[in-house]
Amino acid sequence: MSAKQKELTVFYDGACPLCAREIGFYRAQQGADAVTWLDVSAVEEPEVSPGLSKDHALARFHVLDPDGKLLSGGAAFAQLWRVLPAFRLLGRIGQTAPVAWVLKHAYNGFLRFRPRLQTWFRAREGA
């Protein structure tokens, strides 16, 4: 990998207190320097990457691998985990058929509760 080429680009909502905390955790991990971290909330263009609108990037977690493959949800987390040494095994396991299916559905279920969690985190930070 060249000095300029990153293993992964992570698209995240920096205006979401829940998301910002989670990304902060991952950014503090060994290997995080191999990742490009893009706060989509700070992007003014309607498209943050070819094929990824700002609205879609804010609605779900997405990563872009160096080959240009865009992943979202549970698959995106598994790909991020593979880049971070402390989570590499979890990332490999998360990409196996039965576990990938569980991650996909667990993430989709989480999205239903995300607005409430965001409200709770914002209220907590304001206190």
Indicate the mean pLDDT.
90
Helical residue percent band? 40-55%
Q: Enumerate the spans where pLDDT stays under 50 for 5 or more consecutive residues.
A: none
Number of strands: 6
Ends: how far apart? Answer: 45 Å
- Going by helix content, strand content and strand pairing, the class is alpha+beta
N-to-C SSE series? EHEEEHEEHHH
Spatial extent as radius of gyration: 15 Å
Largest sheet: 4 strands, mixed
Envelope shape = globular
**Continuous helix count:** 5
Question: Layout of helices and strands, plus pairs?
Answer:
Blueprint: E1 8-12, H1 17-27, E2 35-39, E3 47-49, E4 52-53, H2 54-59, E5 62-64, E6 70-72, H3 73-83, H4 88-94, H5 97-126
Parallel strand pairs: 1-2
Antiparallel strand pairs: 1-5, 3-4, 5-6
Helix pairs in contact: 3-4, 3-5
